[in-house]
Amino acid sequence: MTDPVAAGSDPLGQWRRLADASVLLDGFHALKHAVRFGAEVPVAVTADRRATLALAGELAPDVRDALDALLTEVAEATYTSLVPRPHPTAVAALAVRPSREANLERLGHAPRSTPVVVLDNPRNLGNAGAVIRLAAGFGATGVVTTGTLDPWHPTVVRGGAGLHFATAVERLTVDELPAGPVFALDPEGDDLRGVKLPDDALLAFGSERSGLSAELRARADHLLALPMRPQVSSYNLATSVAMTLYHWSATGGASVPPRERPRGRTARPLED
Ligand SMILES: C[S@@+](CC[C@H](N)C(=O)[O-])C[C@H]1O[C@@H](n2cnc3c(N)ncnc32)[C@H](O)[C@@H]1O
């Protein structure tokens, strides 16, 4: 195979120019989601263009043509030099991060038709990624983090499978949270099952280490508990968000259409 870097089209040079200010899309599924949800992707590479487009034809026909136009094939060694940890699909891309102004506009838009998830000082990058994926799946307006964790850290983007582009992801202080009733999840709260969560709710979850901060508790309108046996101290952060978003959707929250399965295909996992 001819390496286009050597051939003069220079995706590697473009990559090096843009990498510091861009979002790394690591793997086929992250690129697929980012393109599907409108991300601007200035450079995308694959170590095997034919295999990547075949995967797109099978799993993501809606974006196959867009990927065909975007992807440049590079040598395997070039691909591995661009990413911290090679992905099994040998695909990587850089995307433009949505502006903070645009995200703040989405988060603060009134009336809000779906909740905002607030992670109060989360510590685990994998949890943050899993929560962004959940928020995208349920059509939540956005995910706001407080504290020092960067919700656009490459490990969070990898955990979120590129779905940062399907919801508004920002870091704010508790004082800067968008308007709306705050329902904070805490094992000492009232039983969630007796409550209908409004579509404009801020659903707040505490840190893995220490739970909800004093600032977040002071801003909360309601403290709610997930059902849990007394001997168990708490659930994992991301599973708590999953149960709460499911409760919102199952009790009449804005409807997310069930995903259609292509005819004639048996169910099988499509991705990690
Ligand atoms: C791992 S837990 C935090 C445990 C922490 N050691 C503490 O003292 O609360 C992370 C967050 O998940 C949510 N959570 C976990 N279990 C919950 C439950 N049974 N009811 C309500 N929220 C829960 C809360 O928002 C909690 O702050």
From TrEMBL:
It comes from the Bacteria. GO terms for biological process: methylation. Residues 252-272 are annotated as: Disordered. Keywords: Methyltransferase, Transferase. GO terms for molecular function: methyltransferase activity. Residues 116-246 form the tRNA/rRNA methyltransferase SpoU type domain. It holds the Pfam family SpoU_methylase. Residues 258-272 have a biased composition (Basic and acidic residues). InterPro entries: Alpha/beta_knot_MTases, rRNA_Methyltransferase, SpoU_MeTrfase, tRNA_m1G_MTases_N. The keyword Metal-binding does not apply. PANTHER family: RRNA METHYLTRANSFERASE 3, RRNA METHYLTRANSFERASE 3, MITOCHONDRIAL. This is TrmH family RNA methyltransferase. It comes from Streptomyces rishiriensis.
